[in-house]
Amino acid sequence: MLLGPPGAGKGTLAKQLSKGYNIPSVSSGDLFRNEAASGSELGLRLKRIMEKGELVPDDITVQIVKNRLEAKDAQAGFLLDGFPRTKEQAETLAKFVTLDKVFNLVVSDQEVIRRLSGRRLCPVCGAIYHVEFMPPKTKEECDQGHGALITRDDDKIDAIKKRLTVYKKQTEPLIRYYSEKGLLYDIDASLPPEDVVRQARNVLAS
Ligand code: ADP
Ligand code: AMP
User: Fold this and answer.
1) Ligand 1 within 6 A of CB of 33
2) Quick check: 3 and 105 in contact, CB under 8 A?
3) Number of domains the chain is built from
4) In a domain, 114, yes or no
5) Where in the sequence is the domain holding 82, given as residue range(s)?
6) Which of 116, 172, 189, 198 fits a disulfide with 105 by CB distance 3.0 to 4.6 angstroms?
7) Residue 95 catalytic?
């Protein structure tokens, strides 16, 4: 499970590990964005919550993630990115999943703001870019030929600040929760992506 503030690089690391270990990365944020893109009533509700930088209620979150984890491709293992985010979610998860390891991505607020302000996403394949730190080969276009990149609605400064506040209040307590269970491994997420992946691989190999 990947824990850390918004913009720490969870999605970026999850995609790398997912490829390397051939297990799916399950991102609650991606699941919600997909539902929002479907235009369903639930999706519209999720979109409004995400735009404000607030958390989706625990019962909806757990249900959506649980459904995803029941899929065939997740039976041999998976990575969780951005879930759980509250103690209640963590306690519910523990009833149906035993986590092997939790990576705590440590990075400053200042760096988070720089990363989120320049984040770009491919709406087709979900690839994550950064205008300065991980730029696409052609400006504002996906390297896989999927066309224009987008900026997430919640990567505006007000929503970023709200998400950081919500993280500190609701999610940061999970550091202690998982540390007390002996599952927590700190990762210095301020380093370049390849160094972040190396740290995670070293822990997984140990
Ligand atoms: P999270 O999933 O934790 O919100 P992302 O993986 O989407 O974070 O990364 C946030 C932004 O920071 C993206 O624009 C990404 O390209 C960039 N990024 C991710 N990891 C690093 C890194 N190690 N160094 C610099 N920029 C990074
Ligand atoms: P992320 O893609 O992880 O940055 O998540 C984007 C947004 O989706 C968050 O700001 C929340 O609004 C919502 N979200 C994602 N994961 C969770 C979760 N585990 N619990 C509640 N809300 C979540």
Assistant:
1) no
2) yes
3) 1
4) no
5) 2-107+162-205
6) 189
7) no
Question: Is 152 among the domain residues?
Answer: no
CA–CA distance from 169 to each of 81, 84, 118, 204 (Å)? 19, 14, 25, 29
CB-ligand 1 contact for 133 (6 Å cutoff): yes
Q: What is the mean pLDDT of residues 143-168?
A: 96
How many other β-carbons are positioned within 10 Å of the β-carbon of residue 64? 20
| Ligand 2 atom at shortest distance from the alpha carbon of 49 | 12
Query: How distant is the alpha carbon of residue 108 from its chain centre?
Result: 17
Residue 68 contacts residue 26 (beta carbons within 8 Å): yes
Reported as a pLDDT band with limits 50, 70 and 90, residue 167 is very high
- Where residue 96 sits, what CATH number does that domain have? 3.40.50.300
Q: pLDDT tens for residues 50-108?
A: 999 999 999 999 999 999 999 999 999 999 999 999 999 999 999 999 999 999 999 99
Ligand lying closest to the C-alpha of residue 65:
2
pLDDT for residue 206 is more than 90: no
Distance of alpha carbon 177 from alpha carbon 180, whole angstroms = 5
Mean of pLDDT over the chain = 97
